Amino acid sequence: MKKFSVTFASTAFYLFVTYTPANAASFYCDHRIDNDIDKAICASNQLSELDELLYDVYKTSIEHPDGSYDVDSLKQEQRHWVRDSRNKCRKAKSIADCLVPIYESRIDELLLKGPVPADRKLRISHASGHYDFQLEFVNIKSADEGADRFGRVAVYEKGSIKPLQYIPMKQLYIAVDEENQILTNNAEMYGMQGTINVSDFNFDGEEDVAIRNGNNGSYGGPSYDVFLFSKKQSKFIKSLALSELIESTLGMFDIHPDKRRLSTWEKSGCCWHQYTEYELRKNIPVAVYRMTEEPETVDADDFMFVQTHEALRNGKWETIKIDRVPPE
Q: Would you list the domain boundaries of the chain?
C-alpha cells in the first residue's frame, strides 16, 4: 500500500491510497442496548457507517464554527431532527430502510451548510480551464485508522472567490502521480486514474466532472461520482447512470468526441473481454457497439482469440464480423 502526505494549509496529514468504510456506529454497540433505533443501527454496516459520518460532520460543525450560523441553533435543530425525523422510524415496518434515506439527507444537509477547517482544504486548479475544485475534508483519520475520509467538493469558476456550488461526497479518494502530485484527467486502464477528471462527457459543449470516490469498481478498479453540468440550473447534477457505468466496468470510461460516444472495457477471469461503445440518449448511456473476445483452443499447445463484433440495429444486436487473432 502506497502512503503519501498532502499538506493542507500548514498541517500535513498522512493518507492512504485506499478507502476503508467505517463499520462502527458513533456509539458503543453491546447487549445492553434496548432502543429499537440503536439496535437497527448496530445490526447494519450501512447504518453504522452513516451514523458515524453524521456524527463526524455534526461534530465538525459544532467545533469549527465560521460565523455563518448560530451553534446553539444548530444543536437545537439536531435535537429536532432526532425527535421528528429519526425516531419516527420506530414504527416503520423496516427500521433500517426508513433510516437510510433520512440519515443520507441529513448528512448532505450538514455538509452543505457546515464549515470545514481551513487546514483540511485541498485546491485543484489544473484540472479545468473553467473551474477550480477544492476538496474539503470533514474527517481525516490517522494512518493507523485507515483512509476513512469524506466531505465535499467546492466548485469555483475561475477568478471567483465564491463557490458556484458544494458537492457532498461521502467518500473521497486522492490519487497522486509518481512525483506525489494530485493526479487529474487520467483514465489509464489498469493504471493511474485521476482524483478528478474533467471533460465534456455528454457532448453538449460544457465541461463535466468525475470525482473519484474510491476503488469500488469491477475487480477493485477505480470508481467515480459523475456530474453533468446543467445549463438550465447552472450547476453540476449527479448522473447515476454514468456513475454506475464506471463502477460496473474497468474504471473511467473513454471519450470519443469524433463519434460522440463513450467506451468501456469489461473482463471475466483471465481471458474474456468486452469492449463496448455507448451513445448518450437523454444523458443515459445506451450500448450501440461491442466487441467480445474469447479464447478458442487450436491444439494442445496453442489457442486463438475469437473476436465477435456486433452492432445494435433497430433494437437488436447483429453480428458484423468475426475475427480470429493470435494472443499478444
A: 33-113, 116-251, 253-328
